[in-house]
């Protein structure tokens, strides 16, 4: 190993060592590469390796930012000029980006050295990361289980301590789901907090956003300070923060009004160990001086049906653009059966159906806004079942009828906050008897990441998780 103390620091700590000239960016990169070689054959998280790109970044001189010299992975859905980006799809396995996305460029400006891409399911469509192109990404806590999705590679790499943080994105839970399944911290920001251009004004009808998963809360906050804010193509802007997000971590959250539920939004029973963990977390919050009551929002529309319509239409556009690029119809040799099914189902819908789904998302948003008039934070389980087993969701099956019931049981509560655009985070506060992580989800009003960062900092102090390591660990 190039730098033996690497694992003792979060990204802020590593950047501080670089500033003090106690370690060089090349030494940190060498350590990240060595750690990848050690554990990635088991977990399959770093699916595109461009170490030479990172070495050239360092040789040219990294920008002076809060994370100068810290190794970093970009999710294999976002473009970084001159590097391969596959989106987990066979048809794009050799695609090399000719420009960078705005968010990727802001990561570069923050000073990180991007040495590879983390795995994603094809086009980020599943809450597990098992693309046909690269195979399954496995959970460092138990290799028979999924690390979550769609940012499964990012969460697995961070959990296994290849690096302290990594890019992640969330259109229906894809930061929070893998953070929960892999036992790391993941905060989905408010809509329009972080940029999505230059190729998109918004993702999945405004549901999608990008940020990071991390070991520490402060890494998430400091990175948000570095990357947030509008760009010239932004269709709308998130409310500006009162102060830097980094100053919220460690700040007294005060006595918050926290509502909680240990039930699925559909009223279905959830895993008993997860329900118990939610109640134990509620007791912990009450012990910290917060006002805690059992109370849950009533939704006027079905989140699953709503997101299926929106995502399906966006997937159909992706398929159309691929067909235009390659000059032929996409088949199951090019794309997974699930992707093609999403596209085909969307083609059968009408423009009116799409507008109806947008209206349903608005109605869900309005119900949540009314609910948060009575509380500052809502606590619920990130996932309502333990991390899925590898192979439980099969996107290449000719019969896809197994997928919807599993999604309803597994992740019924994440997508509503993509529809409302509210910030929400998964905090690694519990593990089940089998040793698998169980994240607790906290959501706040639109634009109020500050409250979540303050609460997360308090919980991190009260129930530290950084030194709890999985069996597969670098």
- In the CATH hierarchy, the architecture is Alpha-Beta Complex
What share of the residues lie within helices? 25-40%
Please report which band the strand proportion falls in: under 5%, 5-15%, 15-25%, 25-35%, 35-45% or over 45%: 5-15%
Structural class of the helices, strands and pairings? alpha+beta
Using only C-alpha atoms, the radius of gyration works out to 21 Å
Span between termini:
10 Å
Unreliable segments of 5+ consecutive residues: none
CATH superfamily, called what?
Amidase signature (AS) domain
Description:
There is one protein chain. By secondary structure, this protein is α+β, with helices and mostly antiparallel strands. It has a single domain, classed as Amidase signature (AS) domain (Amidase signature (AS) enzymes). The chain is 36% helix and 15% strand. The chain is built from 14 helices and 15 strands. The chain has helices at residues 11-19, 25-43, 51-60, 102-109, 152-159, 176-182, 217-227, 272-287, 303-326, 337-348, 351-371, 403-410, 416-420, 449-462; strands at 46-49, 71-75, 113-118, 130-131, 135-136, 138-139, 142-146, 165-170, 185-188, 209-214, 257-260, 291-294, 377-381, 424-431, 437-444. The strands form four sheets. An eight-stranded mixed sheet has the order 8-10-9-14-15-13-11-12, with helices on both faces. Strands 1-3-2 form a three-stranded mixed sheet. Strands 4-5 form a two-stranded antiparallel ribbon. A hairpin with a 5-residue loop joins strand 14 (424-431) and strand 15. Helix 2 runs antiparallel to helix 3. It starts with 10 loop residues before the first helix and ends in a 12-residue tail after the last helix. This is Indoleacetamide hydrolase. Hydrolyzes indole-3-acetamide (IAM) into indole-3-acetic acid (IAA). Belongs to the amidase family. InterPro entries: Amidase, Amidase_CS, Amidase_dom, AS_sf. It holds the Pfam family Amidase.
């Amino acid at each position: 190993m190039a730098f033996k103390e690497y694992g003792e620091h979060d990204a802020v700590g590593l950047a501080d060592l670089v500033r003090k000239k106690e370690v060089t960016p090349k030494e940190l990169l060498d350590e990240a590469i060595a750690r990848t070689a050690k554990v990635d054959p088991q977990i399959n998280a770093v699916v595109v390796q461009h170490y030479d790109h990172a070495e050239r970044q360092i040789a040219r001189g990294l920008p002076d930012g809060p994370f100068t010299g810290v190794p970093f992975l970009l999710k294999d859905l976002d473009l970084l000029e001159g590097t391969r980006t596959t989106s987990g799809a066979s048809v794009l396995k050799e695609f090399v980006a000719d420009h960078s996305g705005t968010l990727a460029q802001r990561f570069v400006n923050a000073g990180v050295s991007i040495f590879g891409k983390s795995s994603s399911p094809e086009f980020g469509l599943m809450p597990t990361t098992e693309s046909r192109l690269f195979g399954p990404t496995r959970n460092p806590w138990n290799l028979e289980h999924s690390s979550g999705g769609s940012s499964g590679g990012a969460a697995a790499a961070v959990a296994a301590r290849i690096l302290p943080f990594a890019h992640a994105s969330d259109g229906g839970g894809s930061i929070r789901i893998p953070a929960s399944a892999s036992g790391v911290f993941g905060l989905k920001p408010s809509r329009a907090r972080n940029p999505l251009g230059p190729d998109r004004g918004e993702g999945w009808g405004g549901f999608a956003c990008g940020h990071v998963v991390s070991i520490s809360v402060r890494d998430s906050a400091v990175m948000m300070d570095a990357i947030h804010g509008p760009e010239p193509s932004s269709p709308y802007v998130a409310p500006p923060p009162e102060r830097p997000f980094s100053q919220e971590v460690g700040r007294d959250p005060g006595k918050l009004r926290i509502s909680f539920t240990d039930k699925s939004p559909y009223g279905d029973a959830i895993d008993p160990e997860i329900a118990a963990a939610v109640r134990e977390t509620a007791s912990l919050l009450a012990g910290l001086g917060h006002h805690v009551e059992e109370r849950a929002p009533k939704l006027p529309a079905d989140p699953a049906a709503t997101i299926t319509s929106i995502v399906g239409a966006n997937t159909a556009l992706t398929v159309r653009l691929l067909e235009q690029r390659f000059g032929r119809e996409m088949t199951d040799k090019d794309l997974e059966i699930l992707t093609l099914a999403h596209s085909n189902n969307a083609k059968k819908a009408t423009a009116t159906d799409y507008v109806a789904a947008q209206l349903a998302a608005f109605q869900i948003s309005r119900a949540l806004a009314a609910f948060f008039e009575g509380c500052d934070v809502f606590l619920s389980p990130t996932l309502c079942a333990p991390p899925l087993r590898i192979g439980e969701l099969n996107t290449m099956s000719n019969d896809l009828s197994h997928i919807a019931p599993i999604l309803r049981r597994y992740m019924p509560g994440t997508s509503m906050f993509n529809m409302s655009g509210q910030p929400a985070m998964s905090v690694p506060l519990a593990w089940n008897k089998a040793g698998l992580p169980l994240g607790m989800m906290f959501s706040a009003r639109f634009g109020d990441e500050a409250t979540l960062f303050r609460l997360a900092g308090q919980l991190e102090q009260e129930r530290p998780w950084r030194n709890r390591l999985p069996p597969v660990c670098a």
